[in-house]
Structures are given as C-alpha cells and as structure tokens.
Amino acid sequence: MLPASLWHPPPMRSGPPSPAGEKLGFCCQSLSDHAVGTDPPAERTGQRQNRGMRTRLGCLSHKSDSYNDFTAILPDKPNRALKRLSTEEATRWADSFDVLLSHKYGLAAFRAFLKTEFSEENLEFWLACEDFKKTRSAAKLASKAQRIFEEFIDVQAPREVNIDFQTRELTRRNMQEPSLSCFDQAQGKVHSLMEKDSYPRFLRSKIYTDLLSQTQRRLS
Q1: How far is it, in rounded angstroms, from Cα 10 to Cα 57?
Q2: 33-42 as b/e, with b when 16 or more CB fall inside 10 Å?
Q3: Inter-axis angle of helices 120-132 and 184-193, to 10 degrees?
Q4: Where is region (Disordered) located (predicted)?
Q5: What distance in Å separates the CA atoms of residue 154 and residue 169, rounded to the nearest whole number?
Q6: Which of 79, 85, 148, 155 is surrounded by the most beta carbons within 10 Å?
Q7: What is the predicted pLDDT for the residue at 129?
Q8: What is the per-residue pLDDT across 22-44, written as a single tens digit (0 to 9) for each?
Q9: What whole-number distance in Å separates Cα of residue 32 and Cα of residue 30?
Q10: Which of 179, 26, 187, 69 is nearest to 122 (CA)?
Q11: 99 to 6, 95, 103, 209, 211: CA distances (angstroms)
C-alpha cells in the first residue's frame, strides 16, 4: 500500500459514457418510470370514472323533473296510457304510498321521478324483493337471493341501497340459509325511506302535477 502522501486519485474520464454505464442509466430510468408511471388499465379506468362523473354532474346541472320524463318510460304508448288514466285514479295516488305502488302508471311515474333524483335503486330493490318472494323453485332461491344481495345490499354494490349497518349484516347472515323472508327487514327499511322521503316530494313534483293537469285537460 502506498503512503497517503504518494497516492493520487485517477484522472476523471471525459467523453461519452461507457456502454456499461449507458445500460445502468437506462435500467435506472426504466425503473423510475415504472415506479411513478400510471398503469395503462388503471389510467383507462380512471378516465372512464372521470367521464362518468362529468356526465353525472352534467345531468345534475340540467336535472329534469317534467311530465315528459314520465311518458318516456310508460309501459304503454303515452297517448294510449293517458286515455286509460283518469284524474280520479291519479288523484288516488296521493292517498297512500302503497296505492301509488300498486298502480301500473303510478309506479311508472314514481320511477321517472326517482330517476331525476338518481335514487331509482331503492324502487328497483323493492320490486326485486317483491319478485323474489314469488319464487317457488328451491333450486333458484339461493342464486336469486345472491344476485339481489350483490346488486343492492353488499358494500359498494353497483346499486347499493341506503340501509343501516345492522340491517346489512342481518341480511348478510340470512344469505347463509336463504329463505323467502331473508330480505324482509331490508325491504321494509327501503320502503319506509321512500314513503317518508321520496313520496312526499313526488306528490309536489312537476311530473305529478303536470300529469294531473293533463288528465283534467282531457276531460274539459
């Protein structure tokens, strides 16, 4: 070993880096890009979500609550439906929430109203439960129950309804041995929510008041 006084550092090399250095730099850059870059599928998903949010916000800013929203989803052709719907029938929808749900056109009008509030999942869940309780095949019962749970009840379900934690967990336990009554508590909660919250607003909505006016105008 040379004494410290006789040792000199090697001269710095000038000019282009060596091939090994270039490879090392390229690898480091690739790793850096991978670490901070955005995964293409995730980026596309994010873009779709952003577009969906912008569309939803756009709908909110141009929120419609009109008679046309009702006629657009009538089970029959609008003109034919209005000829069949009397003022007396439409007026009875205000008697009770269950009277409204039991009437074909009342149900269609209420669904149109909920769409303007982006809460139609509550009605769709209630209807799904009504259909589920008519199931007679034991072989189909479990699969139908699972579909309803995954679509409306489970956390972050595509059309998750607004129910409390206890009701959600009770329904989850009911899935272990599905029966015709396994959604009863959840359905009751959603029915009560619509009756106390959405139904009064529907009766004051332009959809309903315009509909009454249309049926009255037909008689005059």
Answers
A1: 66
A2: eeeeeeeeee
A3: 140
A4: 1-54
A5: 9
A6: 148
A7: 98
A8: 443 444 344 344 433 444 444 44
A9: 5
A10: 187
A11: 104, 7, 7, 17, 17
Check residue 14 and give left, alpha or beta (phi > 0: left; psi -120 to 50: alpha).
beta
The Cα 37–Cα 31 span in angstroms is 10
Residue ranges for the chain with pLDDT beneath 50: 2, 6, 13-15, 17-45, 47-64, 66-67, 73, 78
Report residue 59 as tokens: 């709908």
HSE-CB at 169 with a 13 A cutoff on CA atoms is 3
Contacts of 132 (CB under 8 A, 6+ apart): 144, 145, 148, 180, 183
- Give burial (CB, 10 Å; 0-12/13-18/19+) of 207: buried
Instruction: Find the helix packing angle between 120-132 and 138-148, rounded to 10°.
Output: 170
**In one letter, which amino acid is 65?**
D
What amino acid occupies position 84? Answer: R
Q: Are 49 and 57 in contact (CB under 8 A)?
A: no
- Cα distance between residue 153 and residue 167, in whole Å: 9
